[in-house]
Amino acid sequence: MSEFVRLEVKDGVGTIWLERPKMNALNAQMQGELGEIAREADARDDIAAVVVYGGERVFAAGADVKEMATLTYAEMVSRAHGIQAFTRELAAIGKPTISAITGFALGGGCEVALATDVRFAADNAKLGQPEILLGIIPGAGGTQRLSRLIGPAKAKDIIFTGRFVNAEEALAIGLVDQLHPADEVYAKAVEWASQFVGGPALALRAAKGAVDRGLEVDLQTGLEIERAEFTGLFATDDRTAGMTSFVENGPGKATFTGS
């Protein structure tokens, strides 16, 4: 049983709840639990899409600095892979994922949000990568995912200064995708995720894989990734159902089984 991370499934949408009061500081135990829950959400057939949520007060205020403060270089060498592993596992969920951000999403919390496909934020949310103020840099994907999302210059400004980014600026630079009142952001995220329930699960997984893997390579290699994913879908029942329904009944009326 996980102590600080919980997976709740309702009507085809899985919610990963971050629950370590008061600020959801991501200690090593919580990081490990988040990775395990992410793998479970990826594997479960009753989950079509995933919401990550820290509650109405805060998303996650970062890593547990008290836990890291006394670590030596040698100790961090053995732990650094684990610090990246939980966001890698979250990013590897082969289903649409969305963060519902309230309050602070800082440091490791921002890196959790960056590991999802989409980010909805409360209009009072604050995001950032303040690790530089501790004499370190982001270590759970922040330098890589942030720069890919908003561009290197904006990412460097945020990482170099360690400043907090308010909700309006986050929306303007593409760090988040929508703003909502704090008491509505979770419901809006669930609404977004719900549109994929009953959808073509294998095609969604292929689309996500093609985009994410394509960002890591040159254009020609990315096109080969797309070609392989596109061709493979012609072996699925959903492709047959989708095209047959389109021909017979017009668009948007197919029934998919995820096979």
Automatic annotation (TrEMBL):
Pfam families, per database record: ECH_1
Gene3D superfamilies, per database record: 2-enoyl-CoA Hydratase, Chain A, domain 1, Lyase 2-enoyl-coa Hydratase, Chain A, domain 2
PROSITE patterns: ENOYL_COA_HYDRATASE
Keyword Lipid metabolism included in the entry's annotation: yes
Keywords: Lipid metabolism, Lyase
Family named by the database record: Belongs to the enoyl-CoA hydratase/isomerase family.
Protein name: Enoyl-CoA hydratase-related protein
Organism: Aeromicrobium wangtongii
